[in-house]
Fold each of these.
Amino acid sequence: MTDIALTVQQTARPHGFPTASDFAFVRSPVPAPGPGAALVENLYWSVDPYHREMMDDVPGGFTLDTPLEGRTLGRVVASRTPGLPEGEIVFHRQGWRTHAVVTPVEVRRLPRFDKVPLTAFLSVLGGTGLTAYVGLTRIARLREGEDLFVSGAAGGVGTATGRFARLLGAGRLVGSAGSAAKAAYLRREVGYDAVFDYHDGPASRLLREAAPEGVDVFVDNVGGEQLAAAVGALREFGRIVRIGTISQYNDPAPAPPRFDYAQLVEKSIRMEGFLVSHYRELQEELHAFAVPHLQSGRLGLDETVVDGFEHIVDAFVGMLRGRNTGKIIVRGATA
Ligand code: NAP
């Protein structure tokens, strides 16, 4: 094992899209665990849109010049607690670094399921999948046969939403994504019926063409113009599941949302946002739902894996720019 640990630290507040110069890779000796703690070598890292939100000077945001945090999977390589035996694979939140010292209460020991790769615990079985699952089952309360529109359909949450919606018996599935190649992937692999590239014109026209009969549910990862278009396309008793607003995270002066809110009344539409952190208790339920489908092959994994911790910043910036299809995951050399 190497004796040098790397951490990624944010050194400047980005204006618009972050760049590599807003971050530094900092070297230090691999830390030693004290009594009651264990040393984890991280294997897989998640980089997420919420990290971008935390990079601004906002309450609860990242502090400059300290290691960033994020979801990660690692292996216990030295332990001074019986709660974390050496060799155990754990989930924890000290990401953006090669090594972490953790205590048993700071980690989740992962169940192992036959034929399910570890990366699934950062994609469909992790917070990404849980977000999709909560959105469909608790917020939309999707019923069999209902038609959906999903914005940001080719990302981690978007692909999980499409696949889960299919398994839950959704009707017509319409999505939006940032390229023709992503649209083709979604139709071919994920089971979407129609997908448009949102660069191809006004979202209201593209959505009308893709869903001429309207939809019952809108799962929104993007906000802005696509949200406005979806309000127009929703049927009576439609539901809007507000998951994220990625069209704004890199925009220093985002336009205020403009949609016809009178339609919320006229069509008895319910719009509800949520944070997945309030639904952690559904983790086991998600596993019970998704694992048998993963094992049978009915549920595929949509992941873009970037090799090498040294590429974690590029992977993060690339994700913000749409270079991923499915959940973006960074894989370490020892994974
Ligand atoms: P992701 O979708 O895998 O990656 C981000 C994607 O956003 C990119 O691949 C890019 O794809 C798209 N994008 C970037 N700029 C855009 C723009 N201006 N307009 C439209 N699309 C744009 O990321 P994720 O982790 O699955 O997250 C998706 C959304 O869910 C984010 O808004 C995130 O904040 C939110 N989220 C919320 C919760 C919660 O608890 N509520 C939890 C997890 C995630 P294209 O090529 O298609 O543009």
Amino acid sequence: MSNRAAISVILPTYNESGNIALLIDRLKTVLKSIPHEIIVVDDNSPDRTWEIVEKISEKNPWVRVIRRIEDRGLSSAVLTGMAVANGEVFAVMDADLQHDESILPEMFRAIHDDRMDICIGSRGIEGGSYGNWSATRRFMSWVAAFMAKVMLPVNVKDPMSGFFVISRETYQKSADKINPRGFKILLEFIGRSRGLAIKEIGYTFKNRIHGETKLSSSVIKNYLIALWDLRFGKYVTPTFLMYCLVGASGVLVYSLVLAACRVLVLQDFFSGLLLRMDPNSFSMLAAVETSIISNYFLNNYFTFYERRHSGKKKIAGFVKFQLVSLLGLIVQIGVFQMLQANGFLIGILSEGFRNIFNNALGIVVATVSNYYLNLNFTWRKN
Ligand code: GDD
Ligand code: MN
């Protein structure tokens, strides 16, 4: 027990060669009266951040570096660091000097002395600030924090903070439930357990001087997905929700194309001239096909973004999606006809409502079965 660190500081890094040495130096000063270790988790940065830390650790054995070759990502890097940390308390902070290390001792005491579970370095409370953020950025951050407050059981002013201290017990209680994808690791810890004692300590978020941010793209989308997953994930996965939204947009596309065909009298022209087809059937076919095409692209872009088809793979992907969609149509009509033929709900609903209801049931069954087919066939992993 004696050479156990009181606090393990975990620093995830990706291309922080301009910042890491200075930060380690500052941590040494600010933590001089607290037994500590520093664990840098670097994802094989092209700028060789890991090499700088290896050099430092030769003379400073309380500094360690983990150079990850296979894995990537901020949250998973933090979890990797926590898994090998031997401190009684873990601190997580960005390695780009944007977080203010001078409040670390106070954060540590909140856990060690005051028995808090988590202490957050917060930009959202008294004494904290976002620095010189634009009004738009501050507003977005406020909306995000508000949503977290509404959806999760705790009242935290800065739930998106990447700067926090957590007790080893709290980590151990939820470690196996944490989603390693994404970068909202604090949100995960807060959202996956109940009744946590949380304290926030204000600090001013500084501007980045060296290197650049890695988290700018699709931050909002990832945040919303993470929130949904934390709150409703055990009932409806974010992927299925997205799939249903795309499906709903498909209904809209279908109706618009159908209306357009009728209004523009296209159906008479094409069906008569080219296809010798009944005009109404022609319009329906055109509308169904357009909505299948738009659903494919939307699903490929949003719903299954992690397995997205690109380049030529889109052709094979679309063919599969088309097949699944046709099958879905058969399932939908099949279920409807079966219910109608068996007299389902006769005498309970009027003929009109019975029609609508049984049709809706067909759509539900087809949506669910199509979802699994698309998940495991069209967008099957690798
Ligand atoms: N190992 C590893 N792997 N580290 C990473 C990765 C990764 O894939 N991506 C980013 N990092 C490291 C960076 O090197 C930095 O030390 C820290 O994680 C934060 O990354 P930034 O790219 O500087 O993030 P940011 O400043 O835009 O976002 C920060 O503020 C957000 C809220 O405003 C982070 O603290 C976020 O967690 C936070 O939500
Ligand atoms: Mn940063």
